[in-house]
Amino acid sequence: MRPSALPTTSTLIVAIDRPASGAETVRLLRPDGSEARRFELKPGADAQRAAGARIFVREGGGVLKAIHRDGAVEDLGNLGDPDAFNLTVSPDGTRWMWGTIDASNWDNKRGLVHVAGDRLPARVVAQ
Question: Which residue range forms the structural domain that includes residue 57?
Fold first, then answer.
């Protein structure tokens, strides 16, 4: 996925079209409701959040990517589990947090909370 440059002159609202089947479409809307741009994600990719100048997208296997205003796609690393959940992003888009379930011992499953960000390697911060 390599969309062309995104508009940079004003605030944009991100709207996600999630069809029952097929790829998601991301629409960028101006505050007046007019569409500035639209693009289709790879099949199986899931737009998660928008924050700062990034649109956060999870691809297969738990790979997290960000689409920037200039159209660049940045690999943000792997969430460590294809079933990672509740991705939350700071308002400026520089830090993110998510949950996973450690099921290595089926009788004693535990939830893990992870944090990562710009120049911040992923780490577990709570169990």
Answer: 13-126
- Beta-carbon contacts of 7 under 8 Å, excluding residues fewer than 6 positions away, are 28, 30, 36, 37, 69
> Secondary structure of the chain: what % helix, strand, coil (to 5)?
5, 55, 40
Amino acid code (one letter) for 16: I
What is the DSSP-derived secondary structure letter of residue 11? -
**pTM (whole model) above 0.90:** no
- Which amino acid appears at position 26 of this protein? V
Q: Residues near 117 by Cβ (< 8 Å), separated by ≥ 6?
A: 90, 94, 95, 96
Q: What is the pLDDT of residues 61-106, one digit of tens each?
A: 999 999 987 678 899 999 989 999 999 999 999 999 999 998 877 7
100 neighbors 86 (Cβ within 8 angstroms)? no
Q: Is residue 4 part of a domain?
A: no
Domain membership of residue 6 (yes or no) is no
Domain holding 28: CATH number?
Answer: 2.40.128
